[in-house]
Amino acid sequence: MAVAESRSVDRRLAPVLAEVARAIGRHGLKQGDPQGAKAVLRVGVEEHVRRIIQAYWTPFQAEIPGRSISLHLEVAEPRVHWGECYLTPDYVNWFFFFGEREYDGEIQLLYYEQHKSVGDAVSNFFDHANWYLLTATDHTWDDVTFSIDDELQWGEEYAVREATSVSPAVQESLKKSTIMWLRWKSGGQEHTMPVWYHYDAKAGKIYVLSGERQQILPGVERIRECEVILRWKGKSASVAELGADVRVLRGTDPDWTEVAEKVAEKRLNIPGTPEDTARRWRDECVILELTLRS
After folding, report:
1. What angle do CA 276, 277, 278 make, to 5 degrees?
2. Distance separating alpha carbons of residues 264 and 279, to the nearest angstrom
């Protein structure tokens, strides 16, 4: 991929691009040719954005000085819908959604927000795009292909964040490692910590125990989604950052015993049989069942 040196992303925008890459990974988007795609997310760089927007009958101006990372999500069929997002570490971040009215074909502003935090802006852009652009046109994130402007240096640093669950490196890491990192939000706080896990390759599920003295995850029973950060075994280099849906298994769940015994078989340095360990965990622990988003 060619890189224009004078336009490559600077250090100030690198964390912004990392947030975008993380969101792309969470939603399982695949990079590809926009031609023929049902929906396209284009990631680029903008210079001093000024947008005049009319909300109802009152126009207002959104201005993002300097350079910003831009997201343009476009859906052409069955009706034109698109979203714009402008991200900067120094000023207010904006996003807008527009759509073609079914009854007369006029383009209207569907929704907009502004955020001081880049992370909040990215998260809310993707959340609202799902409703205003994709659901509104009978599409899902599986229909979206993303592309990166040549002027951005989308190297390995960002590619690991948008890898898919079926990538060979991801599968190798899951099978050969016993430790990974989890990132999740609970009670308004973001947590990141290393955890030991069991990977059931046949079922495509990752199981993480919480409740043992050595591994207690804050707010575990309220976790519904998280990010899985994989590393090469014996190395500090990342393999991928992937979004995952979470199901919390408790001792009262009908499949607790089967899952807990499988996890116990892989747990090192614990006394007793897997059956004994699973019974002890029933009252003390929960197990997170993670399903990676491909």
Report:
1. 95
2. 10
Q: What is the pLDDT of residues 122-154, one digit of tens each?
A: 999 999 999 999 999 999 999 999 999 988 877
What count of Cα atoms within 13 Å lies in the side-chain half-sphere of residue 164?
8
Cis peptide bond upstream of 271, omega within 30: no
Which pLDDT value is given to residue 221?
87
Choose among 254, 268, 263, 265: nearest CA to 289. 263
Q: What spatial distance separates the first Cα and last Cα of the chain, rounded to whole Å?
A: 24
Query: pTM higher than 0.85, yes or no?
Result: no
Residue (of 103, 238, 107, 118) closest to 167 by Cα position: 238
Can you tell me whether residue 143 is helix, strand or coil? helix
Distance of alpha carbon 151 from alpha carbon 206, whole angstroms: 37
Query: What mean pLDDT value characterizes the chain?
Result: 86
Q: Taking a C-beta distance cutoff of 8 angstroms, is the pair 53, 85 a contact? A: no
Residue in this structure with the two tokens 């390995």, named with its chain if needed = 156
What's the rounded Cα separation, in Å, for the pair 91 and 191?
A: 26
Domains and CATH numbers, the chain: 5-159 (no CATH), 168-292 (2.30.110.10)
Integer-rounded Cα Rg, in Å, for the chain is 22
Tell me: pLDDT of 2 over 70.
no
